[in-house]
Specification:
With 132 residues, the protein is an all-alpha fold. The chain is built from 7 helices and no strands.
Length: 132
Amino acid sequence: MTLLLLPLALVVDRPWTLAMPSLPTVGAILGIAALSTALAYVLYFRILATAGATNLLLVTFLIPVSAIILGSLVLGERLDPRHFLGMGLIGVGLAAIDGRLFRLRRSRSLLARRSGRKSQSPDTAIDQGRDI
């Protein structure tokens, strides 16, 4: 898309008539490109390889939470109860999508059911045709 819009940008903006950017400006642009973008891609693909696509995409739900917190800390914005409610709902949604709480609850209920039975080795239960 950038290459398609380049002729239009050249006609409208005429960049050759503008002053050359200063060295700090060029350094800032290179710093943003190298540090922010490159580091983000490296982290993204490393997390993708270790955690998987589903867990990686769950992080995108945290963008509004981080924006609200940074707005409060950096810009001094006031947080209303609805902001905390929204952050809590995002947390509950993340927990539901991730499934860890469900698995934890399920494993606890299985442990509770098993503790009611006599202690039995897995081999004995299999020999008797029961699952543990």
